[in-house]
Amino acid sequence: MPPKMVARPTRPGPDALPAPPGWFAQPSGPGAAYRWSLIYARIGACEEPCALDLGRLRQVQAALGRDADRVQRSYFHDGDAASVADDPELVQRRVSGLRDDARVLGARGLAQGRVYIADPLGRLVASYPPDVAQKELLRDLKRLLSVSGTN
Question: Domains in the chain, ordered, with CATH?
Answer without folding.
Answer: 34-142 (3.40.30.10)
